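In the design runs reported in the main text, the only information available to the sequence generator was the tokenized backbone. The following block is the verbatim input for one such run; it is reproduced so that readers can re-run the procedure and compare outputs position by position.
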């Protein structure tokens, strides 16, 4: 698992359960959710002590995808919150800012203004510590609303991925191999590799998504490679396989974002 940012150890505030609870999937099948406490502790504490300021982010970091307007001095742009807790948030933004800079967040639908400063930064991921903690009720409300957005974004983004390949095969557009994102560069991939939510890390469905997501992107690239080599029969076959495997991926993401999964993961 690749971590995008240093994280703190929230074990004291959120005890782990090393058992393997079961949850019923949306299709009615029972899926075993093996929660590996040792993995959670290793990941959440991997960078402990590197940045004392990050320790202010106490509490569970709930993984979400929430649109947010961010501003710093005269700079302002739309961004996405990848996780939120009472003490801070992980924000994906390409704004030219760094550690120590202030950052104001505004969630329009919630009419919520939050001020903070950046305590961790890597590429476009900014770990923001809030100047004043927000209530647990607000955090839970935001998480319940925006956790399902992860699945919505993944489904939309994936459909665009499929459509581009389909259009290329139909001769409507010309694509090169560099035109397709790698698995860690799409929006879902960036979110996945940034997760530090202790209720997700170590669960079998979450861990399994990494290989499945890589497989989908690899299949997409193989479709394009076959097309560029004028092997249309092979490209058609690979595209059919891509469509089939894609549904498996999207179903897995939907399960991960449903309330029933979260309840089972905490059990």
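Verbatim output:
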């Amino acid at each position: 698992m690749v971590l995008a940012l240093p994280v703190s150890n929230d074990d004291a505030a959120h005890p782990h359960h090393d058992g393997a609870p079961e949850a019923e999937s949306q299709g009615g099948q029972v899926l075993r959710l093996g929660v590996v406490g040792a993995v959670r502790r290793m990941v959440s504490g991997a960078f402990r002590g590197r940045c004392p300021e990050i320790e202010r982010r106490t509490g569970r970091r709930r993984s979400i995808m929430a649109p947010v307007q961010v501003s710093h001095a005269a700079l302002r742009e739309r961004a996405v919150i990848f996780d939120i807790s009472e003490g801070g948030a992980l924000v994906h933004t390409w704004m030219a800012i760094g550690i120590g800079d202030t950052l104001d967040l505004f969630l329009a639908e919630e009419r919520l203004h939050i001020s903070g400063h950046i305590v961790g930064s890597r590429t476009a991921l900014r770990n923001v510590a809030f100047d004043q903690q927000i209530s647990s009720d607000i955090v839970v409300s935001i998480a319940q609303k925006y956790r399902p957005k992860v699945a919505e974004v993944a489904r939309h983004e994936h459909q665009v991925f499929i459509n581009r390949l389909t259009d290329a095969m139909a001769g409507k557009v010309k694509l090169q191999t560099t035109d397709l994102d790698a698995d860690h560069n799409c929006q879902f991939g960036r979110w996945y590799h940034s997760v530090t939510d202790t209720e997700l890390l170590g669960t079998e469905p979450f861990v399994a998504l990494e290989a499945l997501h890589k497989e989908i992107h690899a299949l997409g690239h193989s479709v394009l490679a076959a097309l560029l080599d004028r092997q249309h029969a092979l490209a058609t076959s690979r595209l059919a396989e891509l469509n089939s495997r894609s549904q498996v991926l999207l179903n897995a993401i939907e399960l991960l974002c449903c309330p029933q999964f979260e309840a089972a993961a905490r059990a």
